[in-house]
């Protein structure tokens, strides 16, 4: 590859540090987003009211301000974390080569993963870090980097996050990134006055189509003394009395392996940059910061009872060591009042003693000697309510709904209101799901090309789509929907879907329990049916005997299956069906073989009639009739005894 033009571009950009037109705006925006989300550096966005507030007073207000913005930002971010929990996401890749597909699976698993715990792969990165970046720095880039590997080794890609401040310049043609130039800090070893020390240096990187060029600051003397030689793809360059190593790498990719994080376009830059999901509520964040600061200073300086008291002058420790305005005769601090000049109560063991006047008219009512005055709380209540309103306004600005606020009376709303509010939430979430899918497909396709897939081929499948329903409802909301479905006599399949959604929330994180639920649900005979509907079906001839047996003994049958086959839930459906069918047939045979005994509680007359009907089978007819009478009498006697026992039990 000819690196002449890419090297010229990289060196020129490094020397001039020419930035894109909106670099300052995107950097400042990312800094403010991060301050509101984390609380770090939030004091930089507090404004001083110079007319009434001195510099010292402003510093004191900053010191006692405890912003609520991180809590509000956290509540706004939570629905975005729920997006990836949807079990109905359709995702598939097939590059028509088993070897390539297997390599992709390994690369995605190792993406940002650990050697010990191999669960922190690409999916986990998308569920967690990508959400954080979308809020904290939407104009940042994520570059897919990797180390060179042997022919028999699988490349291990990793995400390299580039902040908006580190992105100096880039170029797009349409939606296709042509090149990306960044500036990061990197320490290097330097020899100064014969001593080796670590200093902070600069590193410039140019990512282009099919190549990567790095320019790293170094110390030539240190490299020479330690025998470090340049590689064939490296060369020294110097400017401004600094030495750099320029390295060239050929990626052999037909695209730049990087993507920008954001998806919500900033209208103030005509869509050339992005804003984060809570940017519509940024005004409320700024107002909340100011109002919370004022509330904190009010609570600290004014909202406590004021004590008003008549007190006597301090008389000193003794007649020899008197007190005059807090000073003893020697000029030091009076030990009795600690320099206050007044006699006060400092502990519960002390009291103020007043001399009894000779004239009763000179007595002062004790309740007038000391009073507590509570400050008016109307202003404090107004400020506190205003802060709460700002939190609600922030949610309305982002989601057009307050569904995810704990203090919102969501459960008192009708099903129509709940659905309307959820539609607003879905509208806010949908653009993020589209970006989520694009990132997933971009990373998977990059892994495929790194695995040997030719970019000229088009015979591959790469699908990642979210369903129309992002599944953001809580159990309480789903139960409210289930109640509405039951009351409206909706079809049984709607109840079945809601029950499934509730189970997926309950068993979230427990894959084994969730698999067990889905398998059992597949074989349960009457999914979504009410108890009344099931009772009616069981009494008709339209339900097979095997279905009735499975329903009546469902738990016992599956418990027995689990005991005999520990891998039952991991088997294929046709194998599971065969096992369940055999178990039901076994139960049917056992039921038929053990037909329950029938007890005749008929009266004596009917017993005699039964005996006469059986004369053909009984040689002694009279004996049969007598037996029938005895049976009838015994039945009556047993019935009387049972009635007596029931009456005794009721009395008890």
List the helices and strands and how they pair.
Blueprint: H1 4-16, H2 23-38, H3 55-64, H4 69-82, E1 90-94, H5 98-110, H6 122-127, H7 129-136, E2 141-145, E3 158-162, E4 167-173, E5 176-192, E6 195-208, E7 211-218, H8 220-225, E8 234-239, E9 242-250, E10 258-260, E11 264-265, E12 274-275, H9 282-301, E13 306-309, E14 312-313, E15 342-343, E16 370-373, H10 378-399, H11 415-450, E17 461-465, H12 475-487, H13 492-506, H14 511-523, H15 531-538, H16 545-552, H17 554-564, H18 573-593, H19 604-613, H20 621-651
Helix pairs in contact: 2-4, 5-11, 9-10, 12-13, 19-20
Explain this structure.
This protein is α+β, with helices and mostly antiparallel strands and 652 residues long. It has 20 helices and 17 strands. The strands form six sheets. A six-stranded antiparallel beta sheet has the order 4-5-6-7-9-8. Strands 3-2-10 form a three-stranded antiparallel beta sheet, covered by helices on one side. Strands 1-17 form a two-stranded antiparallel sheet. Strand 11 and strand 12 form a beta hairpin. Helix 12 packs antiparallel against helix 13. The C terminus is likely disordered.
Please tell me the overall pLDDT: 82
- What's the end-to-end separation, in Å? 99 Å
Q: Whole-number radius of gyration?
A: 41 Å
Classify the beta-strand content into a percent band.
Answer: 15-25%
Quaternary structure of the protein:
single chain
Percent helix: 40-55%
- In the predicted model, the low-confidence regions spanning at least 5 consecutive residues are 408-412, 604-652
């Amino acid at each position: 590859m000819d690196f002449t033009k890419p090297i010229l571009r990289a060196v020129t950009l490094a020397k001039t540090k020419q930035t894109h037109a909106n670099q300052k705006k995107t950097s400042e925006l990312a800094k403010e987003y991060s301050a509101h989300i984390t609380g770090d550096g939030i004091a930089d966005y507090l404004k001083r009211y110079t007319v009434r507030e001195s510099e010292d007073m402003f510093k004191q207000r900053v010191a006692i301000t405890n912003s609520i913005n991180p809590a509000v930002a956290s509540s706004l971010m939570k629905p975005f974390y729920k997006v990836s929990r949807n079990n109905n996401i359709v995702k598939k890749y097939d590059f028509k080569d088993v070897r390539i597909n297997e390599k992709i699976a390994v690369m995605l698993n190792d993406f940002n993963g650990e050697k010990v715990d191999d669960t922190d792969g690409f999916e986990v990165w998308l569920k967690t870090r990508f959400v954080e970046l979308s809020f904290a720095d939407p104009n940042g880039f994520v570059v897919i980097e990797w180390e060179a590997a042997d022919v028999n080794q699988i490349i291990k890609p990793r995400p390299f996050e580039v902040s908006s401040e580190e992105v100096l310049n880039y170029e797009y043609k349409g939606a296709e990134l042509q090149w990306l130039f960044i500036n990061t800090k990197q320490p290097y070893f330097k020899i100064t006055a014969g001593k080796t020390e670590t200093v902070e240096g600069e590193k410039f990187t140019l990512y282009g189509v099919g190549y990567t060029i790095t320019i790293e600051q170094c110390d030539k003397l240190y490299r020479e003394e330690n025998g470090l030689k340049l590689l064939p793809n490296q060369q020294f360059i110097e400017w401004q009395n600094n030495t750099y190593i320029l390295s060239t790498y050929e990626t052999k990719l037909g695209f730049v392996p990087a993507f920008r994080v954001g998806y919500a376009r900033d209208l103030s830059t005509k869509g050339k940059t992005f804003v984060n999901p809570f940017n519509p509520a940024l005004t409320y964040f700024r107002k909340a910061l100011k109002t919370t600061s004022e509330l904190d200073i009010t609570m600290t300086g004014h909202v406590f009872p004021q004590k008003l008291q008549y007190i006597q002058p301090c008389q000193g420790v003794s007649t020899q060591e008197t007190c005059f305005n807090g000073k003893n005769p020697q000029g030091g601090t009076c030990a009795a009042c600690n320099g206050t000049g007044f006699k006060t109560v400092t502990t519960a063991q002390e009291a103020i003693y007043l001399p009894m006047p000779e004239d009763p008219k000179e007595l002062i009512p004790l309740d007038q000697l000391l009073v507590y005055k509570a400050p008016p709380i109307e202003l404090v209540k107004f400020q506190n309510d205003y802060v709460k309103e700002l939190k609600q306004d922030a949610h309305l600005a982002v989601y057009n709904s307050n569904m995810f606020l704990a203090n919102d009376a969501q459960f008192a709303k009708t099903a129509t209101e709940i659905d309307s509010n959820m539609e607003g939430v879905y509208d806010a979430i949908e653009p993020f799901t589209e970006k989520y899918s694009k990132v997933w497909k971009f990373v998977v396709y990059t892994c495929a090309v790194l695995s040997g897939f030719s970019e000229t081929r088009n015979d591959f499948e790469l699908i990642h789509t979210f369903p129309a329903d992002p599944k953001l409802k809580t159990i309480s909301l789903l139960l409210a929907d289930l109640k509405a479905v039951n009351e409206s006599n909706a079809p049984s399949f709607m109840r079945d879907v809601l029950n499934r959604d509730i189970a997926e929330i309950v068993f979230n994180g427990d894959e084994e329990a969730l698999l067990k639920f889905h398998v059992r649900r597949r074989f349960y005979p009457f999914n979504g049916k009410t108890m009344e509907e099931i009772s009616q079906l069981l009494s008709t001839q339209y339900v097979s005997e095997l279905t009735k047996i499975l329903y009546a003994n469902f738990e016992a049958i599956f418990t027995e299956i689990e005991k005999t086959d520990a891998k039952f839930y991991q088997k294929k459906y046709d194998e599971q069906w065969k096992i369940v069918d055999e178990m039901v047939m076994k139960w049917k045979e056992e039921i038929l073989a053990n037909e329950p005994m029938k007890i005749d509680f008929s009266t004596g007359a009917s017993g005699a009639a039964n005996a006469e009907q059986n004369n053909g089978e009984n040689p002694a007819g009279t004996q049969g009739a007598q037996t029938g009478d005895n049976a009838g009498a015994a039945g009556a006697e047993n019935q009387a005894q049972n009635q007596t026992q029931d009456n005794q039990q009721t009395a008890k």
